[in-house]
């Protein structure tokens, strides 16, 4: 049973953003501070990555743990309300993420996915990983 009224739940769900989230903003500000310029939520790239470095074919996704199914086999048992809906929704997101990764990789893109908790707790590591991949793409002549 949900502990919120339908109106409260509706307002909570409407407040969840799909872009410019807290984790995206952390990553964006640190990349910008280090002098890296990117395109955000590029609709021209399949999957609409959160950040793209088109010249180097690098796509970056900042995924929230709940909606993208971090540790899904364990986490799915923690959902107490509207289980059928959430299991279907999150499993669909996981499949879509895999399809996007596969498609972009087949097109020559390097795909990086970071969990929100990793961005919050290890921002420097995430940014260093991105820079390493960009430099690798530069060295390989991907332009």
Give the beta-strand count: 4
If helices are DSSP runs of H or I spanning 4 or more residues, what is the number of helices?
Answer: 7
What fraction of residues sit in β-strands?
5-15%
- What low-confidence regions span 5 or more consecutive residues with pLDDT below 50? none
The whole-angstrom Rg is 17 Å
* Alpha-beta content class: alpha+beta
Distance N to C terminus: 53 Å
The domain tally reads: 1
Provide the residue-averaged pLDDT. 89
| Helicity range | 40-55%
By CATH, the superfamily comes out as: VSR Endonuclease
The best one-word shape is elongated
CATH-derived architecture? 3-Layer(aba) Sandwich
Biggest sheet features: 4 strands, mixed
* Major sheet strand order: 1-2-3-4
CATH topology: Endonuclease, Chain A
Instruction: Identify the CATH class.
Output: Alpha Beta
What is the string of helix and strand elements? Answer: HHEEEHHHEHH
Task: Characterize the structure shown.
The structure is a single chain. The protein is built from 7 helices and 4 strands; from the N terminus they run ααβββαααβαα. With 143 residues, it is α+β, with helices and mostly antiparallel strands. The chain has a single domain, classed as VSR Endonuclease (Endonuclease, Chain A, 3-Layer(aba) Sandwich), CATH 3.40.960. A 4-stranded mixed sheet has the order 1-2-3-4, with helices on both faces. The longest helix is centred in the middle third of the chain and has 24 residues, at 83-106. The chain starts with 5 loop residues before the first helix and ends with a helix.
């Amino acid at each position: 049973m949900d502990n919120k009224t339908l109106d409260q739940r509706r307002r909570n769900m409407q407040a969840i953003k799909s872009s410019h989230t807290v984790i995206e903003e952390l990553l964006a500000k640190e990349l910008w501070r280090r002098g890296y310029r990117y395109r955000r939520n590029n609709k021209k790239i399949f999957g609409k990555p959160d950040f793209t470095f088109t010249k180097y074919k690098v796509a970056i996704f900042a995924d929230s743990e709940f909606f993208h199914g971090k540790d899904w086999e364990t986490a799915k048992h923690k959902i107490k309300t509207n289980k059928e809906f959430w299991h279907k929704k999150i499993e669909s997101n996981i499949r879509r993420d895999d399809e996007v990764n596969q498609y972009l990789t087949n097109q020559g893109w390097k795909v990086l996915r970071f969990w929100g908790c990793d961005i919050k707790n290890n921002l420097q590591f995430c940014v260093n990983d991105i820079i390493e991949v960009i430099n690798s793409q530069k060295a390989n002549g991907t332009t």
